[in-house]
Amino acid sequence: MEFRHGRAQPRIHPTATVAATAVISGDVEVGAHCRILHGAVITADGGSVRLGDHVIVMENAVIRSTRQNAVGIGDHSLVGPLAYVVGATIEPEVFIATGARVFNGAVIGRGSEVRIDGIVHLRTTLAPGTTVPIGWVAVGDPARILSPDQHDEIWAAQRELDFPGYVFGIDPARLDRPFMVELTERYARALAGNADDEQV
Fold first, then answer.
1. What domain of life does the native source organism fall in (predicted)?
2. Which domains does the chain show, CATH number per domain?
3. Which of 37, 54, 72, 135 sees the fewest Cβ atoms within 10 Å?
4. Residues 114, 95: contact at Cβ < 8 Å?
């Protein structure tokens, strides 16, 4: 299914294939010979989404832009089942495996791999040819790649990346009410425009 979001609607190359149960919404461009499989969701929520040629997006993957961060996925890349990519730049020939997560402002260098359940945190840059092992976490610029049992090191690096400020524009130290109350009310207002989407 394709949806117009705001004034933008998807542009899909005639050689691309999109499964009937996939959802593509807004300012999304799908390149030549792409394959978008069942249950995949590709949505442009403010920024654009650009898929190069020969990109494969597998079942139930989610690719999403934000107002702050567009998404670009380079030629000959694959986004695996249940993977989540938001506001990131993925250079050509990258493999994002099943269940991997790539967050806002991340840059994945050409020929890199983020293996099963790997995480690339916001504002993290992977050099070309980097591998994030199964279940490991990449954080920072340049990226440090840490095992999931290194929570303190991950948190120390992640704290400097300012998730609430970068993603939501919120400084928790300046709030006079609970952070999650501010976050959910502000985010709900931002997402309210989806109510006006039209199927095309």
1. Bacteria
2. 2-161 (2.160.10.10)
3. 135
4. yes
